[in-house]
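subagent[fold] <- orchestrator: predict structure for attached chain, return tokens only, no commentary.
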Amino acid sequence: MVTLETYDFTDLTCTNLMIKLKILLKKLPVGEQLNFYSNREQYDNIRKPFAKDPYKLQGEQLGDNRYLVAILKNSKR
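subagent[fold] -> orchestrator:
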């Protein structure tokens, strides 16, 4: 099952975004995905910590400073 809501986090600081993502991902059931918009600086900062198990990160650049990001929560291995 995939989450349909897409959040807009482009106005958050990188620190606040990381806190928000950790809270949302902790509550997210395995197999679900978190979708949100970010700016370039945010995207650069979240790529490394959320690109490893139990997460899979995908990002698509929509404009000069706007990305559509999806983080899928996989089961822990």
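orchestrator: received. Logging for downstream: The chain is about 25% helix and 35% strand. Helices lie at 14-27, 40-46.
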